Amino acid sequence: MSVTINGSTVSLPDDPRVSLLDLLREHLHLTGTKMGCNQGACGACTVLIDGERILSCLTLAVQADGRAVTTIEGLAEGDRLHPLQQAFVDRDGFQCGYCTPGQICSAIGMAAELERGLPSHVTADLAATSITASREELAERMSGNLCRCGAHNGIIDAIDATFFSKDTAQPYRPDIPEVAA
Questions:
Q1: Are the CB atoms for 47 and 24 separated by under 8 Å?
Q2: Which domains does the chain possess?
């Protein structure tokens, strides 16, 4: 059994009880993904599996068998930051930085959800095929990722500028595997 993490194939641990978070941090030393609450309540451990955001503290490593995991370390291309990482810097989307990797991975998954037309709690028309990425919509969709420093305005600004800015004809499409609708 194996999993692809940031483009590299990795064997899964023999112990089926190992969480994906522990595989990343303790076994592979990919410490960008943070452990916050270890109970799925804070979002600090968010990574992408096949382009969908998941909480790695609540996911067993064996559940990722045969799938592609993208962590914060896998988003940049060499020394060039992913556009959302750069937007977090440019728009003060972080202070202490602890929640930032989870925020960024979550935002990438969230943008794909919006693109597929998946509604949220605040989406007015549940049958709509296109959903406007309003500040309220973005804040609701990111509400599972907590920031104790209060950088929420900068986080929403960075997400909006990267994926939904009116200055671009098309939203940015992250270079990660597509998710089946």
A1: yes
A2: 2-73 (3.10.20.30), 83-164 (1.10.150.120)
